[in-house]
Amino acid sequence: MFVTVVAVMCRLMVTGHHDCVEEIITNSSLDKGVTLQSCMRSGQAGLAHWKSNHPIYRSDSWRVDRYKCVPGHYEVKGGT
Q1: Less Cβ crowding at N or C end of the chain, within 10 Å?
Q2: Where residue 78 falls among pLDDT bands split at 50, 70, 90?
Q3: Tens of pLDDT along 43-60?
Q4: DSSP 8-state assignment for residue 28
Q5: Looking at residue 76, what DSSP letter applies?
Q6: What pTM, to 2 d.p., does this model score?
């Protein structure tokens, strides 16, 4: 089964509002080890590693709001 790992990344703005975006972290075609079970079991650890190495989101101004393990292909939506 094809699986897509999606994170919602949020940044606190000066105005006090949150600026949130969805990002596809990985999927089964990029990482053959990604399954629905592995995503649910160890998704938080993988996401923390991804965030710490990302050129934009590793900043302390960004936080992971939530993530999801989506069966199939996923289309990123605009701001949330």
Answers
A1: N
A2: low
A3: 899 899 999 999 999 998
A4: T
A5: P
A6: 0.83
